[in-house]
Amino acid sequence: MDPIQLRSDDLEVVVDPGPGADITSLRDLRTGIDVLFRTPWADHAQAVRDGRAVPTTYDPVAGPLETYRGGWQLLCPVAGAPRPVHGAPTTFHGEAMAATWTVVESSDSTARLAVELYSVPVRIERSLDLAAGTLRITDQLTNLSDVDLELDYVSHPAFAGAFLDGRVRLDTGARRYTADPATEGSFVAPGSHHLWPIAGETDLREVPKAGERRMAFGWLSDFAAHWASITNLDLGLAVRLDWDGTHLPYAWFWQELNFGESWPWHRRARVIAIEPASTITGGDDRASVLRLAGGSTVQISHSITVASGDDIGTVASTEHEEQS
Fold first, then answer.
1. Residue 180 — very low, low, confident or very high, per pLDDT cuts 50/70/90?
2. Residues 4-45: pLDDT tens digits?
3. What is this structure's pTM?
4. Domain range list for the chain
């Protein structure tokens, strides 16, 4: 299917309604910079998606990664490693990232898409609305059965490229960072808890510059308000995420800064992600707060604002109104 292009005076958004309904590009028209990540194997991933190349594996983890181009995905009904969900086997990051969505309608500034999952009896109806420099995403999830369901929901935007060159700063309404308990190689101990912004001796607000290697994976919690921003101080460019804290009380925190020597990165990825989430990344307490009673519907909203020039101070401040 042809990509959907949404455009305002400030921002261009490209959505691929094929597997995952990925947002593949988020380009600031004032600077020409696409803030989203593109994997080193994105061309191969696209060829596999298009049927121009044969997949090298059908492994439940390696298979989804082979077709991962970067960009922004919805992870549902499972996020992270494959695990059974209400008796259904799943792949890495879940079915919504692999399923082909139906385009209900689209215009220059709006799009409506829908998908009905097989692994769980859930229909997702998505609205995308672009105005000026803000893209608002609203998902309506409906339980098509009379069985109560617990689902993961993680919004997975990853940022990279020229947007991470130079001095880059992270800000958030979170007050706590926890390192994933099963992930080795981070600069802090697995499972350790830290008051934002200091983790060990590291100020998490400061993104290491190019050439400095770091890996981090964990989650942000205890939000005063559910928002996070990434600001490139040299470019005068910032992005800010705001989201519904009722259903997404956490945010996964991922940094792969030319650190991983082995597959799949081989030190070729420089990417950071802050991912609004219904669950923590792992551990004995992992459980999703997103529960759908039989026949019920919930609505989840989040947005991203891209700002440049004099506007970046407002976007990165706590004075910016929270969406939820």
1. very high
2. 999 999 999 999 998 899 999 999 999 999 999 999 999 999
3. 0.94
4. 4-315
Separation in Å, CA 18 to CA 125, 205, 285: 15, 35, 34
Beta strands across the sheet bearing 102-106:
102-106, 110-116, 122-131, 134-143, 297-308, 237-243, 227-232, 168-172, 206-207
Query: How far apart, in whole angstroms, are the C-alpha atoms of residue 289 and residue 293?
Result: 12
Burial class (CB in 10 A: 0-12, 13-18, 19+), 2: exposed
* 3-class secondary structure per residue, 189-250: CCCCEEECCEECCEECCEECCCCCCEEEEEEEECCCCCEEEEEECCCCEEEEEEECCCCCCE
* CA-based torsion, 240, 22, 267, 265: positive or negative: positive
End-to-end CA distance of the chain: 33
φ, ψ of residue 6 to 5 degrees: the values are -105, 140
SS3 label, residue 152: coil
Q: What is the DSSP string of 40-69?
A: TTHHHHHHHHHTSS--S---TTHHHHHT--
The model's confidence at residue 321, banded by pLDDT at 50, 70 and 90, is very low
Alpha-carbon span 317 to 324, nearest angstrom: 17
Pick the CATH number of 4-315 from 3.30.70.20, 2.70.98.10, 2.40.240.10, 2.60.40.4070: 2.70.98.10
Q: Please count the other Cβ atoms lying within 10 Å of the Cβ belonging to residue 203.
A: 12
pLDDT at 318 (0 to 100) = 59
Length of the chain in terms of residues written: 324
* Cis amide leading into 264 (omega within 30): yes
Average pLDDT over the chain, rounded to an integer: 94
What pLDDT does 320 receive?
47
